[in-house]
Amino acid sequence: MLFIKFTFLAAVVAGLPSSTNLAARQGCTSPRLRKSWSQATVEERLAYLEAAVCITKKPSRLGMHPNATLHDDFAYTHAMLDFDIHQFAGFLPWHRYFVMVYEKALQDCGYKGTAMYWDWVADSSDPANAAVWDPVTGFGGNGQGTENTGNFAGPIQDGPFKDFRPLYSGTALEQHGLCRAWSRGNPANDDKDLFGHRYTPQIVAEVLATDSSYDAFREALEGGPHQAVHFGIAIGNGRGRIGDMVPSSSPNDPIFFLHHTQVDRLWWIWQQADESRTNAYDGFHRLPPNAPEGEQGPPVTLNDVLAMRDLAPDAKVLDVMDTRNANLCYEYPL
Ligand SMILES: [Cu+2]
Fold first, then answer.
1. Separation of 195 CA from ligand 1 center, angstroms?
2. Is 329 left (phi over 0), alpha (psi -120 to 50) or beta?
3. CATH top-level class for 30-287+298-331?
4. What phi and psi, each to the nearest 5 degrees, are found at residue 188?
5. Which of 114, 213, 264, 271 is 20 to 30 Å from the Cα of 221, by its Cα?
């Protein structure tokens, strides 16, 4: 009896996972460690890039259009589901699963590593010179000039995706050069720093300190630093047209996945702070824009479905809450 009591107490004190989580963790004995892009070796970065280029050349799984590639499938699926995956609790688990599906696609292209993250907090004082924008060991840099048609500005000029032409703008067909449009140092613009002043270590520490509820944390992260990085990359030049990271087809830009792996890492860090956060999930579903004002949708649950359409099998929120479960089995450096 005393022993049982002691074990229980010790588990509480050490913040060990509950028995449910422990059962789900069987089969994940050595979780893979997801690395920061700037801390990966050159060989690891080149291997990742080679597989990411491979995805832009593989045929589509969805078969929506004869010119579509597997990469276009990611943008199209994200754009189709836009309303169902943003601005409510489901944002974090859905994007966690989406990054997993992309990581699997990289591995199907021969990549042996894991998803990597762009630690934009560490680079927030000078994000335009981050390692991720390197023309050889990164994703290429800013765009220049204007795309001659459509909604986009600033086709990129260098890097492994220079000749990649995404097929979609939102869910509409609009093939174009991959565009980034951050300010090129116009001191009149608030965005001269790729909005880095909106995701400083101090600001992100405040987001991570949110402890009133899961959904309050989700909202602070999604509406704050997450959104600032999207907008910083894609509307900085203030020309009215935009880069690929803003429309609902934002996975067009392969940097999307490093951005969202970082968002996933911040959620993971928040979850690590307290064992009860492993399965912390609350908030409400969104109602369509024409719903009566002040009404909210039904409460979210861990059994809610994470739809992936034809890109991958659907999952449940509960399947992705614990990155140490057998399906996910990864961690980030602490
Ligand atoms: Cu998204």
1. 19
2. left
3. mainly alpha
4. -75, -15
5. 114
